[in-house]
Amino acid sequence: MPLFRPHSTKIRITRRTHSRQSALWKSLRQAGGEADAPGRSFIVRWEPLAWLLRGVFILLLFVPERCFFQAAARELTFCGADTVKADTLSAVVPGISVPADSALLPLDSVAVDADSGLSTGDSTIQNGGRPPDSARPFEYRQMENRAFHVGEHLEFEIAFGIIKAGTATMSIPSMETVRGRPCYRILTTAQSNSFFSRLYKVRDWVESILDARGLFSWKFRKHLREGRYKADRSAEFDPVRGRVITPKDTLPSPPYVLDVLASFYYARTRPLETGSSFDMDSFSDNKIYPLRVLVHGRERIKVPAGQFDCVVVEPVLRGEGLFKQKGKLTIWVTDDERRMPVLMKSKILVGSIDARLTAFRFE
After folding, report:
1. pLDDT in tens, 85-143
2. Per-domain residue ranges for the chain?
3. Dihedral (CA of 293, 294, 297, 299) sign
4. What pLDDT, on a 0 to 100 scale, did the predictor assign at position 135?
5. What predicted TM-score, i.e. pTM, was given to this entire model?
6. Residue ranges in the chain assigned as alpha helix (H)
7. Residues contacting 191, CB < 8 A, separation 6+
8. H-run or E-run covering 263
9. Partners of 290 in beta bridges
């Protein structure tokens, strides 16, 4: 029996190879093979030089899977192919973007890239769909902001119905510099009062570094201490390459994505006409949510800090079918340039949790 057939090669999948090289088998299946479960055979139809590819695959069992991504274009060329399916390329290299109308890509346009593993000569398939930096320098957006500045400090009381549960603050204590750009350091805190701390102690703080000119996120940190629950989370944002970097993962992101705290400050800078809405993309807990802010109308309300003419807004998930939105958040902001939050009401299963403005100052 010959060692290999002219137009096919047969590879035995063990549980070890199946678990360690799952992305490899997936790419082979999309390239025209027949999938089988661990312990069975996997038949891939290739050109006569398939024995060379077999040797490469055996070698890959002893090297990191990333080596396959970096060598994929060259190995496909060894098989006598001069094109590769766009959807196959997308499967082999996570995060790479290809034009929607591209069924086949010429392999001579596919090159090894240090970050993604593969890239193509077409500028739309590099840098997560953005032109390479060498071809066109990245231009940061410019956004007008008359709503908030350094020195703003807001204090709130947190209540469950008529029962006071704790206090919270929202402030911009200082400026920072990230990549040579001025940024706001935004800080919020929340803590339960002495009575509730006996039942459920809360000591939380959240920090966001927001670009002062473009109003997009650079860094985010969250420190949660709620009862027995403890969590510390962080993220860094790369608007140039379109990604969010966390301690456990790197996620592709839309341009100018905002963390959950920065989203609120960005919303304060937008025009708020009754009946209108605007969209944004918000990052929270390793996911990016498409948000839409609805402007419901205007009301005059009274809180411990005084009476204010307000605009009523509500953030909701944009689109349908993603997941069921739980709860409802309504925010009252002053009907002036500052758009200062006066009341935040979060509907829960029984009643609501309110944050009412008690004091404010601007330095």
Report:
1. 444 444 444 444 445 544 444 444 444 343 433 444 443 333 444 444 445 778 899 99
2. 9-129, 153-361
3. negative
4. 54
5. 0.63
6. 15-20, 22-30, 50-60, 66-78, 86-92, 194-197, 260-268
7. 166, 167, 168, 202, 203, 204
8. helix 260-268
9. 281
| Gap between the Cα atoms of 340 and 333, Å rounded | 5
- 13-40 as b/e, with b when 16 or more CB fall inside 10 Å? beeebbeebebbbebbbbbebeebeeee
pLDDT at 62 over 60: no
CA distance 261 to 283: 9
Token pair, residue 11, equals 């590879």
Query: What are the tokens at 333?
Result: 């902001």
CA 85 – CA 278 distance, rounded (Å): 37
| Whether residue 13 has pLDDT greater than 50 | no
Give the span between the Cα atoms of 3 and 6, in whole angstroms.
Answer: 10
| pLDDT tens, residue by residue, 175-195 | 999 999 999 999 999 999 999
Residue identified by tokens 């802010």 is: 293
Q: How many CB atoms lie within 10 A of CB 205?
A: 15
Inter-residue contact 282 to 259 (CB < 8 Å)? yes
H/E run at residue 154? strand 153-160
The pLDDT of residue 81 is: 40
Report percent pLDDT > 70 for the chain.
60
| Residue found under tokens 């996120």 | 217
Q: Give me 5's structure tokens.
A: 């057939």
Q: What is the CA radius of gyration of the chain?
A: 27
Q: List the one residue out of 118, 122, 82 whose CA is nearest residue 102.
A: 122
The whole-angstrom separation of Cα 315 and Cα 79 is: 53
Q: Would the pLDDT of 251 be above 90?
A: yes
| pLDDT 10s digits, 281-305 | 999 888 999 999 999 999 999 999 9
Contacts of 353 (CB under 8 A, 6+ apart): 158, 159, 160, 165, 345, 346
Residues of the chain above pLDDT 90, percent: 52
Other CB atoms within a 10 A radius of the CB of residue 195 amount to 11
Contact 60, 22 (CB under 8 A): no
